[in-house]
Design goal:
Radius of gyration: 22 Å
Structural class: alpha+beta
Distance between the termini: 77 Å
Helix content: 25-40%
Strand order of the largest sheet: 5-1-4-6
Strand content: 15-25%
Largest sheet: 4 strands, antiparallel
Length: 205
């Protein structure tokens, strides 16, 4: 008799015993980007230069929701039986605190917040780029024939990939001549300026 493992190996499939364990603890609810962490010196420069971030807000993967009647019958299924829906929207911020995730992370059963955060020199640059990226996300939703959602979110479909979207954002920023930094690059840039100012003041030797 052919075993499940043998059938799976033949067809290139996985069996339950070979799948990675499901996330536990906080990660089971989904993940969002951690807040920007700045030293006092870096924070002083952040407030001086006032960069603004374009944020991609959503869940870290597709989710599925059923709305039930008090009797337990399904009144509305949001997302398909197998694929679910993947909610996404844009936001901008000039705060070093993660005010965006704080605004959107309200659901009791999943984390919803910043998944991509890219810093630009001015609020105007961030707003202009946001309009282009919003049109791109809406295009993804149309291509995926996504589920209609509320509160400015669109369903980008189960084939969506963050790395592809980030590449598209960087491409559009380059077309506009905008410099863009992720969190790590912004912190490195602020630290470089801080060290240079220390040297000029004779603090760093």
């Amino acid at each position: 008799m052919t075993t499940a493992q043998e059938l799976a190996a033949h067809y290139g499939l996985a069996t339950a015993d070979t799948l990675p364990p499901l996330p536990s603890g906080e990660e089971a609810w989904g993940t969002v980007l951690p807040p920007l962490k700045l030293t006092p010196g870096q924070l002083k420069l952040f407030k001086k230069f006032k960069p603004h971030a374009l944020c991609i807000v959503g869940t870290d993967g597709p989710v599925s929701t059923n709305l039930l009647t008090p009797e337990g019958r399904i009144k509305k299924r949001i997302g398909g039986h197998n694929s679910g829906y993947w909610q996404m929207r844009t936001a901008t911020t000039g705060s070093h605190k993660d005010t965006v995730t704080a605004n959107y992370d309200k659901a009791p059963d999943r984390r919803t917040g910043v998944q991509i955060r890219l810093w630009l020199r001015t609020e105007e640059h961030a707003k202009r780029l946001e309009r282009k990226v919003l049109a791109l996300i809406e295009h993804y939703a149309e291509e995926a024939m996504g589920t209609p959602l509320l509160n400015g979110f669109v369903d980008v479909g189960p084939q969506f990939r963050f790395e592809i979207l980030e590449g598209e954002i960087l491409s559009r920023a380059a077309q506009e001549g905008y410099g863009v930094r992720n969190d790590r690059e912004l912190v490195a840039w602020l630290e470089k300026i801080r060290r240079e100012e220390d040297l000029l003041e004779g603090v760093g030797g």
